Amino acid sequence: MAISVSMTVNGKTVSGDVEARTLLVQFLREQLQLTGTHVGCDTSQCGACVVHIDGESVKSCTVLAAQVNGTSVTTIEGLANNGTLHPMQEAFREHHGLQCGFCTPGMVMSAIDLVKTHPKPDEHTIREWLEGNICRCTGYHNIVKAIKAGAEKMSAA
Amino acid sequence: MYNFEYNRPASLDDALKALSSGEEVKLMAGGQTLIPTLKQRLAQPSKVVDLSGIAELKGITVEGNAVVIGAMTTHATVAASAEVKAKIPALANLAHGIGDPQVRNRGTLGGSISNNDPAADYPAALMALGATVHTNKRQLAAEDFFAGMFTTALEEDEILTKVSFPVPEKAAYAKFAQPASRYALVGVFVAKTSGGVRVAVTGAGEDGVFRVSDFEAALSKNFAASALDGITVPADGLNTDIHGAADYRAHLIGVMAKRAVQAAG
User: Fold this and answer.
1) What is the ipTM of this complex?
2) Is domain B1-53 annotated with CATH 3.40.50.300?
3) DSSP class of residue A60?
4) Best mutation site among B37, B50, B93, B100 for testing chain A: the one with the most A CBs within 10 Å?
5) What are phi and psi of B171, to 5 degrees?
6) Residue A15: is its pLDDT beyond 80?
7) Class at the top of the CATH hierarchy for domain A87-156
8) Does residue B80 sit at the A interface (CB-CB below 8 Å)?
9) Which strands form B160-166's sheet, in the order they lie side by side?
10) Any idea which architecture B170-264 has in CATH?
């Protein structure tokens, strides 16, 4: 039985028919073609699929599309503004906070949620926050540096 | 994942109606355990009733000498709550240590204790603090609520609504986390209450959370880590798995209990 869902994704109203079992990440990638949100583990461990629902970071592989009906979703594609990277994206580029790049969308989305409650996070806070984001290139050192710098840029903006 | 019918009621009454529809119904709280379970086809309900639309199941209030937390309150909300931090900081710390930030943004108190995973954190807090579990039709002491691994006293037509935590004199939770999952390999919650000291252990028992009466008696006389010197917990009835053997867990119970007593101050 199809379920009609309607939500705001990256500022635009979208709607579609999903099955009850359709995951949010499937809806984003397969129906909306927003393939920046990745599926790494599919078991809510790795964090490559992190998006924001009403401003809170969540793992979109562990949320049903039907559950987010009526909410506002932000994905990695919704961060840049008219071609200008979000300060956190810019910081990842500047500090080489990525190697293969697979985990990066989730890292960036997670980091932005951190800055909401910790405008100037220290290294320990950042590392603790990244509990749910795994980088299999093990590039954490520069990811942490990038998040620190990105947080400063966001707070200054 | 097999398909199912999805239902998101806006009131407890509607949820109870959906629950009694005669189909194989699963209630969904934050979904952080249920959705992975559905993906693995370990559960195949014909209908999932999502409780997230029921406002009366959310929120934190202080009522007399107790902190009352709605079943659908997320771990992140408990961890950040000024009321919880002021009255039972150990509970806020416990919530802050569950899973990871994204899981804490979705996962709920009610979901955790209804699932009663033997390695979940919250059951230890409920048992040590002597919490009362409220459902749509009755109130249960924590001891009567938890009924063994992944089992509770909840009946088929019953929905958990809130948990009332009496404020202790002091309390702390010390967890030895399994490094990959952040579930408790052993977690010990120690609470000093007007009625004595209570010590509850999660992560270790084959039947889930349990209390350690020898520790409680010793700490009731002298609330100091040294009071536990020489008291051991038998390995009988403790879990053995790839992460640790029963005797290792038995040892950790003593270590984590001492750490909790020290943290409680």
Assistant:
1) 0.96
2) no
3) G
4) B100
5) -165, 155
6) yes
7) mainly alpha
8) yes
9) B60-63, B66-70, B160-166, B132-135, B139-141
10) 2-Layer Sandwich (3.30)
